[in-house]
């Protein structure tokens, strides 16, 4: 059975796939190295490696070469992914819990990306798994399709349909509740009591829509405090984070409000009271979100620690969704901006999407719902219609 293998080289962490003979799968490694050359994050590499390990297990179970397959084998693989086992060809008569469509699509996407890469390298079988699709006259063309796709679009012959569902969002009362549970201002002592670090983190995610990895990767030099100008944080692409975190979308600036800026100032003061200004050699180069109670003091906070802390908060704070994750703040931020009338391209830039089509695909339902709600007052619409007719 093939498996994923974590590989550490110096400070860098990556993943590869090892076959049942305990050797690295060379075709898979070639593709993963291509992804590394494109600066894919370790988490993306891990996800793709998992999908390809399942595919390699599927092939090994059938004693089939990777470059001698077709759409039939890919279809069988997707079917077994849905049933939760890539080693069983026989369909069980007992009902099983089906794997989520999004998980199946993620695994299949890794396999199809693998073959698309090898198709570009001239592997014949890989080329047969894609077809060139040209738009019919009069058919709808996606954004800038007329510029970028004049020769047709390369489309996979195997497609996994994922049922669309609205992105999860947090309600204003829920976000207030978790902030208050983290830390509150004591008017008597004139100081914060509680976990000010996490109050700052949740407020930052709520107001900026940053990914958790982007927030944890912020250094003090990246926070530009407002001194006569609007405060901002700079999201900077770096590859030297001790826990492998990096900005997924490269460099961008995100403007923030004065209250969030003051909260950051209070956190800096709290760090100085804890001795950070004495212990740290280069303040500007240290991470904003750091350890205080466990591990090495002032070392960068791990994403796993944030998830563990959030799990405890969900037990303590009534009304928080049990499946809430830090990424919900990002969806909430985008949804709030779109509902307030902010143009889609502005939201796309603020979120750091490389392509506005990503924003449209993810949040199109928000603007559609807002437009459809305008049709709710049918009497008002027909009255206006009648007035125009009479005129």
From TrEMBL:
Q: Which domain of life is it from?
A: Bacteria
Segments forming domain Core-binding (CB): 22-119
**Ranges where the Tyr recombinase domain occurs:** 165-377
What name does UniProt use for this protein? Tyrosine-type recombinase/integrase
Annotated Pfam families: Phage_int_SAM_1 (PF02899), Phage_integrase (PF00589)
| Keyword check for Isomerase | no
Q: Does the keyword Aminoacyl-tRNA synthetase apply?
A: no
Q: Which UniProt keywords apply?
A: DNA integration, DNA recombination, DNA-binding
Q: Which family does it belong to?
A: Belongs to the 'phage' integrase family.
Checking PANTHER family in the record gives:
PHAGE INTEGRASE-RELATED, PROPHAGE INTEGRASE INTD-RELATED
Q: Which organism is it from?
A: Streptomyces luteireticuli
